[in-house]
Amino acid sequence: MTAAAATRRLRLRRPRPRLLALGGVLVVGAAAAVAVWWPFSGGGAGASLDNGTATALQTVVRRSLTSQTEVNGTIGYAGSATVAVPSGTTPSALRQAEQTAASARASLAAARAT
Predict the structure, then answer these.
(1) Cα separation of 108 and 111, whole Å?
(2) pTM here?
(3) What region, left, alpha or beta, does residue 57 occupy, with left being phi > 0 and alpha being psi -120 to 50 degrees?
(4) What is the rounded average pLDDT for all residues in the chain?
(5) Using one digit for the tens of pLDDT, what is the confidence trace for 61-94?
(6) Residue 75, SS3?
(7) Of 102, 85, 82, nearest to 93 (Cα)?
(8) Long-range contacts: 24-31, Cβ < 8 Å, 24+?
(9) Cβ(104)–Cβ(72) under 8 Å?
(10) Distance of CA 84 to CAs 41, 87, 97, 106, Å?
């Protein structure tokens, strides 16, 4: 085999830049089509995005508050928390805070039981 024939054979095997670019564009286009189509495809048999609760629209009117009532409580799931006691806190203030926390835990347990 001559050097010219070997060079020509290598040249035929080397991928062409235009074909690589076209292949890349096709792959990116297919990925974009899947990304747009997938969320709206329905998710297969038995999948439902509807929770079954009826919905409606209602007009909202802004008004001033007529009264306020302050209550203790949490919204949602209350997790555990660490409270750092500032230096200079007296032992009696710490005991009172611990009693308040114990009372709050008891109230929470009673509320969860009902």
Answers:
(1) 5
(2) 0.27
(3) beta
(4) 77
(5) 888 888 888 877 777 666 777 767 777 878 888 8
(6) coil
(7) 85
(8) none
(9) yes
(10) 51, 9, 12, 22
